[in-house]
Specification:
By secondary structure, the protein is mainly β. It has a domain at 249-343: Beta Barrel (Lipocalin). It is 6% helix and 48% strand. The chain is built from one helix and 28 strands. It has one helix at 3-23; strands spanning 27-32, 37-42, 47-53, 61-63, 69-74, 98-103, 108-113, 119-124, 130-135, 140-145, 151-156, 161-166, 172-177, 182-187, 193-198, 203-208, 214-219, 224-229, 234-240, 250-252, 258-262, 268-273, 279-284, 289-294, 300-305, 310-315, 320-326, 331-337. A four-stranded antiparallel sheet has the order 3-2-1-28, with no helix packed on it. A four-stranded antiparallel sheet has the order 4-5-6-7, with no helix packed on it. It has a four-stranded antiparallel sheet with strand order 8-9-10-11, with no helix packed on it.
């Protein structure tokens, strides 16, 4: 068989596999904090397919379990950040606070749920009926009903709550408190706290192993990760990263062996062992990578680079940067359809 025929045969064999892999994450959604909109990326072409106006400061975003809606936290609080004198910022526009509901099919904002002050991140219940939303300036988790926006509960969780993640079995939500260096575990039925876990300095977010056995808490100021027994809700050990790593968001590989981390002002996305914290690989993602999303088979990762207004596309095998996609201003959060690693 000559080389040309062999190439065609190999290509014919690979095309179905490549198509199936693309279908595992066919669309990527990116919230753009400064431009107030949503970028919709076609993952197959690595191009922005649409841009949807949302409102002020869109940050955390989650897909509904049925894939029909996308929920985005909107905040009228002024944009701050490193080096900003907050005393000189304008007052918050509380009328802008809410959860935007985007219809996936029509690609438009269809309504905004109110009643949450300065929402930052959120999670969706397994049945799609409830939203669990971190209210940053009220130090609480607010539980909203999707159907009518009614508030079901206010749960104190500590100052500056940010990361909100649903466990794979849907029974509990983990909420990080940056100011009090802990995670509050909340039962999704009773809507009451069932545990509080002391973690590292300034915990930003949590990522779960897909089997639900472990949770990993990214502690930005401590440059480390707290490993949690996610069934007993107890801290097990700490993975110490290189000084200045500043872990922000995380995603766990399908086999549970590798934790992928965005590192903010350290400009990198890391792959580390969940057992030892040993570095498996790293890549220069761009300016301040923040939100990340991993496709279903763990081969490709998307990272939002806020200051450079783009999203890095990373092949996790070898941790290689594939491309950067220009989106809106200051991209913050990333979600991949079907969503697999935000929980």
């Amino acid at each position: 068989m000559n080389g040309i025929r062999r190439g065609f045969l190999i290509g014919a064999l690979l095309l179905p596999a490549l198509a199936a892999r693309a279908a595992e994450c066919d669309t990527v959604y990116v919230s753009n904090e400064a431009s107030g909109d949503l970028s919709i990326i076609d993952a197959r072409t690595a191009r922005v397919a649409a841009t949807i106006p949302l409102g002020k400061r869109p940050r955390g975003l989650r897909l509904a379990p049925d894939g029909r809606s996308l929920y985005v936290a909107l905040s009228g609080s002024p944009l701050g950040g490193p080096g900003v004198d907050e005393s000189k910022l304008p007052p918050a526009d509380k009328a802008a606070d809410g959860i935007g509901v985007v219809d996936i099919a029509s690609r438009r904002l269809v309504r905004t749920l109110r009643g949450v002050s300065d929402p930052e991140q959120l999670a969706v219940s397994a049945d799609g009926r409830l939203l669990f939303v971190a209210s940053e300036d009220r130090a609480e988790l607010v539980v909203l009903a999707v159907a009518d926006g009614a508030i079901r509960a206010h749960v104190p969780v500590g100052t500056e709550p940010e990361g909100v993640n649903l466990a794979p079995d849907g029974k509990v939500v983990y909420v990080t408190s940056e100011g009090e260096h802990r995670v509050t575990v909340i039962d999704t039925r009773s809507l009451q706290p069932v545990a509080r876990i002391e973690v590292g300095l300034r915990p930003r977010s949590t990522a779960f192993a897909r089997d639900g056995s472990r949770a990993y808490v990214m502690n930005e100021a401590g440059s480390d990760v707290t490993v949690v027994d996610a069934r007993k809700h107890e801290a097990l050990r700490t993975l110490t990263l290189a000084a200045g790593s500043l872990p922000m968001s995380g995603a766990v590989s399908p086999d549970g062996s590798v934790l992928f981390l965005s590192t903010g002002r350290a400009h990198q996305v890391l792959a580390v062992s969940v057992d030892s914290g040993a570095l498996r690989g790293s890549v220069e993602s761009g300016a301040r990578p923040w939100g990340i999303a991993l496709n279903a088979d763990g081969t490709r990762l998307y990272a939002a680079n806020g200051p450079s207004n783009d999203v890095a596309v990373i092949d996790t095998a070898g941790m290689k940067l594939r491309t950067r996609i220009t989106v809106g201003e200051k991209p913050w959060g990333v979600a991949c359809r079907p969503e697999t690693q935000s929980r």
